[in-house]
TrEMBL record:
<dbReference type="InterPro" id="IPR039745">
    <property type="entry name" value="Vps54"/>
</dbReference>
<keyword id="KW-0653">Protein transport</keyword>
<protein>
    <recommendedName>
        <fullName>Vacuolar protein sorting-associated protein 54</fullName>
    </recommendedName>
</protein>
<comment type="similarity">
    <text>Belongs to the VPS54 family.</text>
</comment>
<feature type="domain" description="Vacuolar protein sorting-associated protein 54 C-terminal">
    <location>
        <begin position="739"/>
        <end position="866"/>
    </location>
</feature>
<dbReference type="Pfam" id="PF07928">
    <property type="entry name" value="Vps54"/>
</dbReference>
<dbReference type="InterPro" id="IPR012501">
    <property type="entry name" value="Vps54_C"/>
</dbReference>
<keyword id="KW-0813">Transport</keyword>
<dbReference type="Pfam" id="PF10475">
    <property type="entry name" value="Vps54_N"/>
</dbReference>
<feature type="domain" description="Vacuolar protein sorting-associated protein 54 N-terminal">
    <location>
        <begin position="278"/>
        <end position="432"/>
    </location>
</feature>
<dbReference type="InterPro" id="IPR019515">
    <property type="entry name" value="VPS54_N"/>
</dbReference>
<keyword id="KW-0333">Golgi apparatus</keyword>
<keyword id="KW-0175">Coiled coil</keyword>
């Protein structure tokens, strides 16, 4: 045991040697057990070891997670845990002394104060063994299965689920050399090897010499023998080789001192303690021997290090002198240069800080004056400036004055102020709209000062609403305008009814209950038109100001936009004085407001038309019969009102026009019904005789021929009176473009009715389409009824005629020809008003031409039948001319006498040409029957004489063209 101090001193000398330091750490606890020996009581030895502090540190002496915190007492450790590793949630304490701030032995919801102290004492202060929190290393890495399966560079793997898990699960790829690291070769180590080679050779030589010396000594038997030189550390229990040997831990104490406390008597216990002490001394001797062997093997390196230590100490002294001189120079430099310079910089920084603080104070003073300034701006109706001030103040509070406690309630106050301004603007706009729209109306649209009252106030209100992005004011103005229009119409109706003597009642909509006359309705509509146009002009002026204000708020040119949207050139005198402000509306917001304003004008104009349409609706006028003059006045009023609305909103409004067109169509239907019934009565009573033509009717035809106009004609009553009474100023025929027309009375009245239709269409263009279709219907009625009466012999029953003569047929044909002459002019007249309503005129023209053809067939059919009848009984024998040919000549003369004064010569030639052709055909048949040939015989001479008599009759009548009246028939008759 005497060698122990020497070994310990040797250990202290060799503490810096790296080869034995690790080994010495492993056996420190065992050495301490031996050094603490010398007594007979093992418990006293154990206590001394625990008090010496040379064993493992207690759990409360240091903190796992605060490396620099060391504690001398338990109270300091408990205080540290409560301050640093504990959180308080409500009334509970949550321990955070653990990995990732989670204590593994305390509930997450926490415990009370007393339970927390008990928890710290049990699990943290008296903890016997501690494990350091795991540190991440390369061995902690593992394969990530989702990353392997979703590797985009590998695509779909077919054999993924057939592979065995392990190091070969992921295929190994060759990793190419990085271009950023140079290639290391053997030549790079030549300089190092040349430097270390000499030292390495010297080390090898010394090691070989030492090994040879030890071997010689062992061979000569000079090696000191020791009973323990061949001992091994394996004979020492592993418990003494642990780094964290802690005898306070009961199992560890039991392994070190087995059965120490179970001895029945004191003598036995002392004997066991002595044995244990001897055993521990034996373990210490083994360790000391191993230390001595280790030191003897490294003695050369140890003494070399001790020799180098003197040189190192000399160099350290020189370095200390240089450091002292450098510190002296730095201190002088600091006192002469650095301190003053940094003081100047510090003063400049302090001045800058003072200036920033002063700016903040001034900014705070300005923000403090925000509310009085807001009151002042609202008092002057500068709403945009007030809202800008609120926005700027809120921005300053959130960016530059954040955290200032004296302004913590100001943002909320500013928000409430902004809401108050929004409500104030809405209320002011509604009040302004009501006041402006309900101003007294002027009698005409000439308001001297301005159509819009208080323009500056309106601009301020609208600009404020736009700044708030509150675009609902357009809808509010539209609702107010509709209410005002409804109230104005109702008030005008009430005033009109009050001025009337009749007792009338009002409906819920404000219109009178269908008891006024047409004239009263028109007068009422005229007043309503003037009033509504006045209101619409005011609305248009207000919307123009809103539009210009919106353009100004968007930063655009209000004048150009106004001209583009409304089509009205804004002059410098009527321009609105807009507020100078920055543009705060976006292009989308500007277009949205413009769309709302356009919809407002369209909706208001449409509503005006709908309310006025109720005044002229079918229910309102169903008890009245309107004249053409009244319909014309009504149409004129509606056109003026529609043009005024269209000039305001730029869109054609149709409800009122539709209502007027309904009334006009009712008038047109009644107009047509009256004339159609009158024409039917005239046709039923017509005797189909020639009548004299009154001068009034001749003037109508002359005017149509000259000007192609149907105006200025006499009334139907005058013409009817002239026809029935035989007025002195009358002509037997009607001259149409110097051509005589012999007509019946119904034809004259038909032409008169057609002229009335044309004049009515010219006067009321709104019903021109209806009248055009009615004209077609009237002409179709005349054509069909005249055909039934004359060709169908209906006049024999209706009018009491004895027979239908060729004269009757000719008069009907001439009447139809007059209508055909007039039809293109009527078509052109109606086509100027409605091009789509003249489609039926072509059909009527074809029907009339067909009717005329039927009449011609009827005329020559009658004569041809009688001629054929006579030729059937004719025989070629004297006397000449025979009785048959005399009768044929008489029929031809009677036909000519009947149709010559009525039909034109060309039509007469056409009729006689057909009769002449039929005569020749029938005569050839008779000659074949009689077997008479062209042989110059007696019968041939009789035929020639008969034909000469026949042709002489035609020449006398001039019934055929001159070219057809020669004697060629005497030769051509024999061409069978």
């Amino acid at each position: 045991m005497a060698t122990v101090p020497n070994i310990n001193s040797l250990s202290r000398k060799t503490s810096n040697v790296s080869d034995i330091s690790d080994f010495q750490d492993n056996i420190s606890e065992k050495t301490l057990l031996k050094l603490g020996g010398g007594g007979n009581n093992v418990n006293a030895t154990t206590a001394k070891v625990l008090e010496s502090g040379k064993g493992a540190p207690s759990s409360w002496e240091s903190c796992y997670y605060c490396p620099r915190e060391n504690f001398k007492a338990v109270n300091e450790f408990v205080k540290h845990l409560r301050e640093r590793h504990c959180t308080r949630e409500g009334g509970s304490f949550v321990c955070r002394y653990g990995f990732n701030g989670v204590c593994p032995s305390l509930p997450l919801d926490g415990v009370s104060d007393r339970d927390y102290d008990a928890h710290v004492a049990k699990y943290h202060v008296n903890q016997q063994t501690r494990e350091m929190p795991p540190e991440w290393s390369v061995f902690s890495a593992a394969q990530n299965l989702p990353a392997v399966l979703n590797d985009p560079s590998r695509g779909k793997q077919s054999n993924l689920f057939t592979k065995k898990w392990g190091v070969d699960f992921v295929e190994r790829n060759h990793v190419p050399a990085t271009p950023y690291l140079p290639e290391v070769t053997h030549n790079d180590f030549e300089k190092y090897l040349a430097k270390i080679g000499k030292r390495y050779k010297r080390h090898e030589r010394l090691s070989s010499q030492q090994a040879m010396a030890l071997e010689d000594a062992s061979n000569k038997g000079t090696m000191p023998s020791s009973p323990s030189h061949d001992v091994n550390l394996n004979s020492i229990p592993d418990i003494f080789l642990k780094e964290n040997l802690n005898l306070q831990h009961a199992p560890t104490f039991g392994q070190v001192f087995p059965d120490i406390l179970q001895s029945p008597s004191g003598e036995e216990r002392r004997r066991t303690g002595r044995l244990l002490q001897e055993q521990l001394s034996h373990y210490l001797d083994i360790v000391e021997v191993k230390i001595a062997q280790q030191v003897s093997q490294k003695s050369a390196a140890f003494f070399h290090a001790m020799t180098s230590q003197d040189a190192i100490m000399t160099e350290m002294q020189e370095a200390a002198k240089k450091v002292k001189a450098l510190r002296t120079s730095l201190r002088a430099l600091n006192e002469t240069v650095v301190v003053d310079t940094f003081r100047v910089l510090r003063y400049a920084q302090r001045r800058q800080n003072f200036e920033e603080v002063l700016d903040k104070l001034r900014l705070m003073a300005t923000v403090h004056k925000t509310q009085p300034m807001l009151q002042l701006l609202l008092g002057t109706q500068d709403y945009v400036a007030a809202l800008d001030l609120i926005g700027t103040t809120q921005e300053i509070l959130t960016q530059e004055l954040i955290g200032v406690h004296c302004f913590k309630h100001l943002p909320m106050q500013l928000n409430e102020m902004e809401k108050l301004i929004d409500k104030m603007l809405t209320t002011e706009f509604e009040r302004y709209a009501t006041t402006d729209l309900n101003r007294p109306l002027c009698d005409v649209l000439k308001e001297t000062d301005s159509v819009c009252a208080e323009e500056d106030k309106l601009v301020c209100i609208v600009m404020g609403l736009l700044r708030m992005k509150n675009f609902s004011f357009v809808d509010a103005y539209k609702d107010e305008a509709l209410v005002t229009i409804k109230a104005i119409i109702k008030q005008l109706v009430i005033e009109f009814i009050a001025s009337s003597d009749a007792e009338l009642c009002l409906t819920g909509a404000g219109e009178e209950a269908q008891s006024l006359t047409i004239g009263e309705w028109i007068a009422l509509l005229a007043k309503v038109k003037v009033a509504l146009l006045t209101v619409l002009q005011r609305i248009h002026a207000v919307t123009n100001i809103m539009r210009q204000t919106t353009d100004a708020a968007a930063g655009g040119c209000c004048k150009a936009r106004s001209e583009q949207s409304t089509g009205v050139k804004a002059t410098q005198e009527t321009a609105v004085n807009l507020i100078d402000s920055e543009a705060f509306l976006t292009a989308s917001d500007q277009s949205q407001v413009h769309e709302k304003l356009d919809e407002l004008l369209t909706a208001v104009c449409h509503y005006c038309h709908e309310r006025c349409a109720n005044l002229v609706s079918q229910q309102s006028l169903e008890k009245s019969v309107a004249t053409a003059e009244e319909i014309s006045q009504l149409s004129s009023l509606v056109d003026d009102f529609a043009q005024g609305c269209e000039s305001i909103c730029g869109v054609a409004i149709v409800p009122l026009k539709v209502a007027v067109k309904v009334q006009a169509s009712r008038f047109a239907n009644r107009f047509h019904t009256e004339r159609k019934q009158k024409l039917a009565i005239l046709l039923d009573t017509e005797r189909w005789r020639q009548v004299d033509i009154p001068n009034e009717f001749q003037k109508i035809i002359d005017r149509i021929c000259d000007n192609k106009e149907f105006c200025g004609a006499g009334s139907a009553a005058n013409i009817t009176t002239a026809l029935t009474n035989g007025h002195a100023q009358a002509n037997p025929v009607l001259l149409v473009e110097s051509k005589p027309y012999t007509l019946v009375g119904s034809a004259l009245l038909l032409v008169q009715m057609l002229c009335e239709y044309c004049r009515c269409a010219q006067r009321l263009p709104i019903v021109a389409g209806y009248l055009a279709r009615n004209v077609v219907d009237l002409l179709r009625t005349f054509n069909s009824r005249s055909c039934q009466l004359v060709i169908g012999a209906g006049a024999l029953r209706v009018a009491g005629l004895k027979t239908i003569t060729s004269t009757n047929l000719a008069l009907v044909s001439r009447a139809l020809q007059l209508v055909l002459w007039l039809l293109p002019k009527i078509k052109t007249h109606f086509q100027a008003f409605d091009s789509t309503a003249v489609a039926g005129f072509d059909i009527i023209e074809r029907d009339y031409n067909g009717h005329i053809k039927e009449i011609e067939n009827k005329i020559y059919g009658i004569v041809s039948d009688r001629v054929a009848m006579q030729l059937d009984s004719w025989d070629a024998r004297p006397p000449i001319p025979s009785q048959c040919f005399r009768i044929i000549s008489r029929h031809l003369v009677k036909l000519h006498e009947a149709i010559a004064p009525i039909l034109p010569e060309q039509q007469i030639h056409a009729i006689y040409s057909i009769v002449h052709k039929n005569f020749k055909d029938k005569l050839r048949e008779r000659l074949l029957d009689l077997n008479i040939i062209n042989n110059g015989g007696p019968q041939h001479g009789v035929v020639t004489s008969e034909l000469t008599f026949y042709m002489e009759t035609l020449r006398t009548l001039k019934a055929l063209p001159a070219a057809d009246l020669d004697d060629s028939i005497r030769e051509s008759i024999w061409n069978f």
